[in-house]
Amino acid sequence: MDKTYDRRSQDVGNIVALEHVNVRIPDQVLATAFYVQGLGFTRDPYVMVGIENMWMNLGQEQFHLPTAAQPQVLRGHVGVVVPDLEALKARLESVRPKLAGTKFGYAVEDKHVQVTCPWGNRIRCYAPGPEWGELTLGMVYVEFPVKPGDAEGIKRFYETVLGAPASVVPEAAGTAARVRIGGQRQELIFRETAEEIPPYDGHHIAVYIANFSGPHAFLKQHGLVTEESSEIQYRFQDIIDPETRRPLFTIEHEVRCLTHPMFLRPLVNRNPGQRQATYQRGRDAFVPGMS
């Protein structure tokens, strides 16, 4: 007898990939100490190599860090997987003197290391594990705080407008709308909180979607498109309840199509364990997904 499978378990939603988180930073030297020396990420050697911007590679994802006098702080935090938490802690401790007088800090918490950048952005670092599949380096989620009762409307927005599988889950940390991206490795998480939510300062995320025109039609019809960037990209900021049209949360989405030339662009990742004194031939590069 033929086996029976739940074919829906392998369905991929319309949002195929979360590519980057973009926050402005005022000092590339401090950013290099934090993102490269501390976190162990890699500055992209091909694009944005000047002093006006810097792109940090972690696996197939990036942090985009435009240089500006006023830093931006993401409301919430970014979840990333790194190969080795013990090595991460050693690197973070080594850069502490360089980042003295900033908001930098880190704490070892349950199953992750909570890290704060020099300007207050929070990054939660996890070790590889079954929940991340074969991934050993990459950005796995972005979590945002939202008002109590708004998770259900946010779920409807992503399901109805962007065609992404989503669910509302009661959790110990607060009820959350979880939006699935691509396979089962990346998510956008919108967690309800009674705490005050900071004002939005313009930071953004970038996603790739398969059905490019459908979401645009809805967003355009409801006056939500904020930038008609090009033939292959547009932007919107406001998440609304598609049933009531009530605004729920603001976070700019840089929306790209799958014909965008940067879709799945191979990114360079270095092995942060290489040192001059202990150099080993053939181990300069790091391949995410391989131990």
How many runs of DSSP E, i.e. beta strands? 16
Rg, alpha carbons: 19 Å
Contiguous runs where pLDDT drops below 50 for at least 5 residues: none
Number of helices, counting only DSSP H or I runs of 4 residues or more:
4
Structural class: alpha+beta
CATH secondary-structure class: Alpha Beta
Folded structure, characterized:
Helices cover 14% and strands 33% of the residues. The chain has helices spanning 28-38, 85-94, 151-160, 213-221, and strands at residues 15-22, 42-43, 55-58, 61-64, 77-81, 105-109, 112-116, 122-126, 138-146, 166-169, 176-181, 186-192, 204-209, 225-230, 233-240, 247-257. The chain has a single domain (17-257), classed as 2,3-Dihydroxybiphenyl 1,2-Dioxygenase, domain 1. It has an eight-stranded mixed β-sheet with strand order 2-3-4-1-13-16-15-14. The protein is an alpha+beta fold and 291 residues long.
Features:
291 residues; alpha+beta; 2,3-Dihydroxybiphenyl 1,2-Dioxygenase, domain 1; eight-stranded mixed β-sheet; 4 helices; 16 strands; 14% helix
List the helices and strands and how they pair.
Elements: E1 15-22, H1 28-38, E2 42-43, E3 55-58, E4 61-64, E5 77-81, H2 85-94, E6 105-109, E7 112-116, E8 122-126, E9 138-146, H3 151-160, E10 166-169, E11 176-181, E12 186-192, E13 204-209, H4 213-221, E14 225-230, E15 233-240, E16 247-257
Parallel strand pairs: 1-4, 5-8, 9-12, 13-16
Antiparallel strand pairs: 1-13, 2-3, 3-4, 5-9, 6-7, 7-8, 10-11, 11-12, 14-15, 15-16
